[in-house]
Every structure is written in C-alpha cells, then in structure tokens.
Amino acid sequence: MTALGALDAVSADIRDHRITADDTGLFNVMRHINLLCHLTARMAADAEYQLAPNARELPAAKTLGASAGHLGQAVAHYAQVLAPLITLTTTAQDTFQKELDALGHHSSLRIHLDGGGRALAAARTALEVPQPLPAAGPPAPVPRHDSTARRRA
Asked: According to the model, what pLDDT value does residue 35 have?
C-alpha cells in the first residue's frame, strides 16, 4: 500500500468510527491514536531509512518526513481528547454546575478533534505534492538542418 493509500485508509477509519461522549467514543479515540501512531512510525521510518520493499516507489524522504510531522500533530490532538472524554464518560451530569462544566469539555473535544482533522488534511496535502520524474538518459540529439537541401515546389 502506498503512503497516501495508507493515510486514506486511516482517515476513512477515523471518519467511520466517530468520537462520542460514551464508552464507545473512548474506545474509538484509543483506536485512532493506535492507528495514527503506527502510520506515523511507518512514514518516519520510510523517510529515514527507506527500508520498505518498494523504496523506489516511495515519495521523497522530505515529503514523507513532512507528512509524518503532521501525523504527529494529529496524534497529539487525539491524545488531548482523552482527558475531557474520560471526564464526560465517568462523571454524572446530575447538577447544573456539572452540566456547565461539561460544556467546556465538549468544547475542548471539538477543538482537538478539529485540530486532528486539519493535521490529517495537511499530511495528505504533503503527500500529494507531485514527485519529480526520474532522471532520463542523455537528451536526444537535435536534428541539424541541411543547408544544401533544396525545397521542392
């Protein structure tokens, strides 16, 4: 699978498994962090060592490194989702003050989930940069104009 294909697969999984303020959301955020960490490690290793069996088909190391950096930002955002999500899933919202406090947690969730989405989009954009074509052989000789040839009418 290409780096872009792997990123698209992880992004699709994240879209399909939404984060909700319950135990399922907590499981999903852990799943997302796991997928993002694996993908980040793969891109960073490919960028640094070019060890993949298809190393010649990989994007340039600079491109993979930039994408891995954006994926690291996505991991950080998803990790920051954990604290408010745990609070929302383990605390009963039975008083007015707790409901008000929950608004701040929901806001924090939204901020970090949106930040994670932007980081994933930036990682994808980094991978979409057109790659330079492989170096070709020597240029073809330029045909010389024969000054002695006559034009036929």
From this structure: 93
DSSP secondary structure letters along the chain: --HHHHHHHHHHHHHHS---SSHHHHHHHHHHHHHHHHHHHHHHHHHHH--STTGGGSPPHHHHHHHHHHHHHHHHHHHHHHHHHHHHHHS---SHHHHHHHHHHHHHHHHHHHHHHHHHHHHHHHHHSPPPPPPPSSPPPPPPP-TTPPPP-
Residue 146 has phi, psi (to 5 degrees) of -85, 110
Is a pLDDT exceeding 60 seen at residue 87? yes
Structure tokens at 69: 């950096």
pLDDT, one tens digit per residue, over 92-134 is 777 777 777 778 888 888 999 999 999 999 999 998 866 555 5
- Structure tokens that stand for 95 in this block: 């008083």
| 58 CB-near residues (< 8 Å, 6+ apart) | 3, 46, 50, 52, 64
- Which tokens go with 139? 């240029």
User: What CA–CA distance (Å, rounded) separates 87 from 28?
Assistant: 16
Instruction: Identify the pLDDT of residue 148.
Output: 53
